[in-house]
Each structure stands twice: as C-alpha cells, then as structure tokens.
C-alpha cells in the first residue's frame, strides 16, 4: 500500500484554502470535520437546480429523487449492506431516539438490554429510559483505570433475557477501538441483537458492517466530511421485527420504517459526494477494486495507516509526561486519533493558549459524563481533547506537540 498523499487529500477540502482557516491547524475533528468538495458541489447543484419536491413527473423532480436514491445505494454498497438497510435522519441522536421507541414496543417487562458507561450520552441515555417500562437495564462498566471495556465482563452479564446490547465502536474520550466482531459474536451467541455507535469511528474509515456483524450501526455524516445527517444501518433481521415508526403506509419499506420525519432532500442527495470523494481518493492512490466494498476497505486502511503513523509520537510524548493523564491506550494501532487528557492546569485555559498559536482543540466533557465519572475525572472541569483525521499533516502534529510542551 502506498503512503497517503496528504497534499491531494487537502486539495479536496476547500476549508484549507479559506483565509480565516489558512494558518489554523484543526485538532477538533471529533466534534465535526471539514466538508469535502464533492459534497459541497452536490449541495450547491441541488439547491440551485433541484430544490423541488422529489419523485415527481417533471425533470427537476425526477433528478432530485434519483440523486437521493443514488446516495443511499452507493453508501450502502461501500458499507457492505443492502440499499434498503440504510436510512438517513436529522442526527444520530434523533435516530437512536426513534430506535428506542421501536424497541420499547417490542420488549416486554422483565426482558433486558445492555448499555455501557463508555458511550457518548446519545447511545446510552435514551436506552436507559426503557427502565421506565419495566425493561431491565444492565450496565457493562469500563475499567476505572483504563476506561476500556472487557469482553469477559460482557459475557458475565448476558443471559437468555438480554435482547439488545448497545456499545460504541470507539469512545470519543478513551479512543479505544472496540473489537466489534468479537463482541457481536458474544452477544449473538446469547441470543441478543447488537447496536453499535460508530460516530467516533467512521471519520477514520467507513466500516464494512456485513463483516462486523452488527444488527444496527449508526454514525454522523457531519463528522465524516459530509452534511449534518445521521446515517443508520438497520439489518433486515432486526428491522423487520421492530414496529414501524413512520407513516403507516410506508411500513413495508425498510428504510422508511425508522425515519418519521421528512428527509432533508438536499443533504440526503449530497451524501453521494462522500462516495465521490472516497472513489477519487482510492483512484489517486492506485486502488484497483472490483466492487464498492473493496474500494471502501482500501480507503479505510490507508486512512488508518496515515493516522497511526502521526498519532504514535504524540501518544509516546503524552504517556511519559507527568503533567497529564492520558486516557485510553498509548498504542496508536488500538485507538482512533482522539486523545483526551486530564490536566493539572484548567483544560479550557490550555485550549485558549493553543488557539492563540493557531491550534484548534477542544475542552469539556463531550457528552461522556458517565465515562469521566467512572474514570474519576470531574465532568464539570472536563478534559483537553485533541483529535485529527487523515487530512492532518505530520508538520501540524509536530507543531502541536511543541505547543503542548510549553502550555501543559
């Protein structure tokens, strides 16, 4: 595999040539990424040429509907699922909320679900409310020192009453990439379905959901170089069991069953721009693929290789610095480039100091209050969080490391 051509990558993101951002290094990608040019181009085209009710009989309407269908089909193909198993919603938080309402109708009092305290609140809080209806909620807890989830602990809390297991592909704080395939196999063996929150993982390469085995997989497109849409894969095995949450006359259409709100036509259509970008990325780097899954796998692996290369020196520095507590693994191959630090100094003040040097980082609890509490970190004080993705350069990471050494 060739090295990632970061100059080509950055040429696909207009933000890097905009004057207000030109001298800035973006290290808050976990909160939302820059948008790639193909998505912007498709948004502009839709708003200027196709901003009509889609699926009608006249040309502009037919073009609008066709582009929306194209987005679903192409994105599903890259993720290894069927077109009707992928749907779009206003956000991942809203998609989870709708799923909870469906599961609420399916489960009976005395049956159980499993949630974790490693999650972003969006994939744990709504599920926990099922307790109000007599559903048992079991918490799979992280190790209080490392923040990691132990598969053996999951095994120990499963039995025939558990119907659903919910966990993140990757934590937005400790960054560890959870072994989804292994965990899904454990849950399935106990007769439970699996819901995976991929919001913090997908920016680093879209997964092959078929290979992972997850029954539900969710992520946010605005963190994956796209528009503010939630992407939700619901496999047929669970999708056809869950009660319809949409209009009654759409109940036999899987991708409409869990999207009660009308879709944002332009943003759905623009999702094809993500696949445009991934395909251009693959072609530029010499990928010869036989199908969309192979293209997606190539893009995923090259992005990850670049990120791991940049991340390891940063982790080495932070793991040996007694001014901070690095949350999560210090092995870049085991985590995403989302790095949270418990600091002696106020993390907000450190973030402000870094901002003056053109380094954009985050500070706060990042909706992972339960996880921070489990790790003994005051959520009100929060952590300093540094995050990047494949368009970050080695020079930017070096600049960040030098600035951190001055300001920690």
Could you characterize what this model shows?
Helix 3 packs across helix 11, helix 11 packs across helix 12 and helix 12 runs parallel beside helix 15. This protein starts with 5 loop residues before the first helix and ends with a helix. A 7-stranded mixed beta sheet has the order 2-8-7-6-5-3-4, sandwiched between helices. The chain has 408 residues and is an alpha/beta fold. Helices cover 39% and strands 14% of the residues. The protein is globular, with a radius of gyration of 21 Å. The model has no long low-confidence stretch (mean pLDDT 97). The protein has 2 domains: 146 residues, Aspartate Aminotransferase, domain 1 (Alpha-Beta Complex), CATH 3.90.1150; 233 residues, 3-Layer(aba) Sandwich (Aspartate Aminotransferase, domain 2), CATH 3.40.640.
Question: How is the topology of this model organized?
Answer:
Blueprint: H1 6-11, E1 25-26, H2 37-49, H3 59-78, E2 86-89, H4 92-106, E3 112-116, H5 125-128, E4 136-140, H6 151-157, E5 162-168, H7 180-189, E6 193-197, H8 209-212, E7 216-220, E8 230-234, H9 236-239, H10 265-270, H11 272-284, H12 292-319, E9 324-326, E10 338-343, H13 347-355, E11 359-360, E12 362-364, H14 369-374, E13 383-387, H15 394-407
């Amino acid at each position: 595999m060739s090295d990632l051509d970061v100059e080509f990558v950055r040429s696909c993101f207009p933000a890097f040539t905009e004057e207000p951002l030109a001298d800035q290094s973006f290290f808050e990608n976990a909160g939302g990424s820059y948008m790639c040019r193909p998505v912007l181009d498709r948004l502009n085209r839709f708003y200027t040429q196709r901003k009509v009710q889609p699926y009608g009989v006249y040309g502009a309407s037919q073009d609008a509907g066709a582009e929306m269908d194209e987005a679903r089909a192409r994105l599903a193909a890259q993720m290894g699922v069927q077109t009707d198993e992928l749907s779009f919603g206003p956000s991942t938080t809203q998609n989870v909320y709708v799923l909870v309402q469906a599961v609420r109708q399916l489960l009976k009092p005395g049956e159980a679900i499993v949630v974790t305290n490693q999650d972003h609140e969006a994939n744990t809080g709504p599920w926990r409310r099922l307790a109000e209806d007599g559903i048992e909620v079991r918490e799979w807890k992280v190790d209080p020192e490392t923040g990691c989830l132990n598969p053996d602990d999951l095994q120990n809390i499963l039995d025939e009453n558990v119907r659903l297991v919910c966990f993140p592909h990757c934590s937005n704080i400790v960054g560890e990439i959870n072994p989804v395939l292994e965990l899904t196999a454990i849950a399935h063996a106990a007769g439970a379905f699996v819901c995976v929150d991929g919001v913090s993982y997908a920016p680093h390469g879209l997964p092959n959901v078929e290979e992972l085995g997850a029954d539900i997989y969710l992520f946010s497109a605005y963190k994956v170089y796209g528009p503010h849409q939630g992407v939700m894969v619901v496999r047929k095995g669970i999708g056809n069991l869950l009660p319809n949450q949409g209009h009654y006359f759409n109940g036999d259409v899987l991708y409409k069953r869990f999207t009660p709100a009308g879709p944002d036509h332009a943003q759905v259509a623009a999702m094809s721009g993500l696949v445009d970008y991934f395909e251009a990325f693959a072609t530029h780097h010499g990928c010869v693929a036989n199908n969309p899954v192979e293209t997606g796998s190539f893009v995923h692996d090259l992005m990850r290789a670049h990120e791991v290369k940049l991340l390891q020196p940063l982790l080495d520095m932070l793991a040996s610095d007694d001014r901070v507590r690095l949350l999560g693994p210090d092995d870049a191959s085991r985590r995403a480039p989302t790095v949270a630090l418990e600091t002696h100094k106020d993390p907000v003040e450190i973030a402000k100091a870094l901002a003056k040097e053109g380094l954009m980082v985050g500070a706060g609890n990042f909706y992972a209050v339960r996880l921070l509490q489990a790790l003994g970190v005051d959520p009100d004080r929060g952590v300093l969080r540094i995050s990047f993705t494949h368009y970050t350069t080695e020079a930017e990471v070096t600049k960040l490391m030098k600035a951190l050494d001055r300001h920690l």
